[in-house]
Every structure is written in structure tokens, then in C-alpha cells.
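HUMAN: Spend a minute on the protein record below and explain its fold to me.
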Amino acid sequence: MPRHVVLLTDFGLADPYVGQMKGALTSRAPDASIIDLSHQVEPYDILQAGFYLAASHAHFPPGAIFVSVVDPGVGGDRRILLLEKFHQFFLAPDNGLLSLLMHQGGPSILRDATPAWRGQASATFHGRDLFAPLAARLALGEGPDALGEKMNPHALVRLPGSEPVRTEDGIEAMVLHVDRFGNCILNLDSETWEPVLFKARNPVLAGPGEIRLHPVLTYERLEKDQLGVIKGSQGYLELAMNREPADKALGLRPGHTLRILLEKR
């Protein structure tokens, strides 16, 4: 049974790069099922790519092979990683892209899958010349142990601030993504942090002044100009307003850090 190969890049769709990468894949594994997760990651935006990957993998079947190529260091000394987790495979550069995925629970096996012959590839297009052939080998049923030696998960590059911090009076969090509606998705996974926020008496967003946060289940429960904390569809909590862009109201962008102050009930 052919495996699903899921592509995530910042290549865009105007150039032939995505098509060439798919050609390299299908010429080696013609029966592989190729799915585009997104090719519209902002150029070089490792945080956005990491969020897309962490929020999406659960919607794909076991055995899926994710190929994530947002790779500002292409051609340099960074490694190519192969992560086995959730009964799936993840190929990515060692630049922090796997940080959010590694924060999620569950056992994992990490390998250095950098090909010894990478010097024969284009120095500027490892997606086509290195990642695609590696994904094809997995799609054809080759075992991951043949692609690289195991490595210590603590050795991989992590994105600074990608993991939330519980402080004495609250939480330090980061904006992972701002969607087209202006909702600010935080690095607070719903399973862990929803009980914390929803049980707080008067949670506030700290900054110049303090803004009251309203934990609600849906956007429509927010009154005009109220700032809500909502369990979003992507597995993370988000700051949102009712039919207004919260990012513009708060001046927030992806990568911004913020403090939420909690008052226990």
C-alpha cells in the first residue's frame, strides 16, 4: 500500500520548485500519494512552518511521511533530521522546525539522515535533491534505520521561546501564528493550558496596562471590544475578538512574547 508523502515548504507556487520536488519524488516512488499541506509558508519562517506541522500531523494516517523544507541554511552545515513520532515520519532541517512537535508528548526516535553524498546535490535546492529522495526511500518501504544513525533528541536545534513558561503569577507565552481573521494562536496547547486559563478568576494580558481576558467557548460569546481566550481548532489556545482582528488591536505578530497574569479561584 503506497504511503502518503505530505509536503510543507516556503516555495510558493509561482516558481517550478514544488513541481520539480514532486517530480523527484514520483520518479523514484511512482505509487506514493503526495499531499500538499502548504507551500505558502512565509519565506524563511521556521516558526510558522513548525506550527503548521505540529497542528496538522494528527489529521493524517499512521505511516505518513512529512517533508518540511523551510531551510534558510540550505547548503550549509545544518543536518537533515528524520523523526519517528506518533507512528509517522518527519524529515526536516535541523533549524528548530521540529521544536513544537518535540514539545508534544509521546516517545520519539531521532536520526541524523544527512546523506554522505550531499555535496553532489545542488547547494541551493536540497528539497528536490536530498529531501525528496529520502522521502521516496521511506515511501518504498525502506526502514528508517537505513537512512541514518540515532541521535540524542536534546542535541537538535530548538526555537528560543517556543515552549511556554509557568511563572509565579502567570504564564509567559509566544504568538505562534496569526490567521487571516486576526486570531493570535499561542504556544499553549489546549490539553495542558485550557484548564489553567478557564479556572483562573481574573486572567489578564499584561503590558502597558492590563487587558481582561474572557475565557469563552465560541467567538460569538464575546461582546464588542472584549478579548477572549478560546480553545481553537488547531490544538492551541488563541487570543480572539468577535469579528475584529485581535492582532491589530493588540499590536501582536508571530514571534511576539506576552505575559498572562492569573488569579486563582
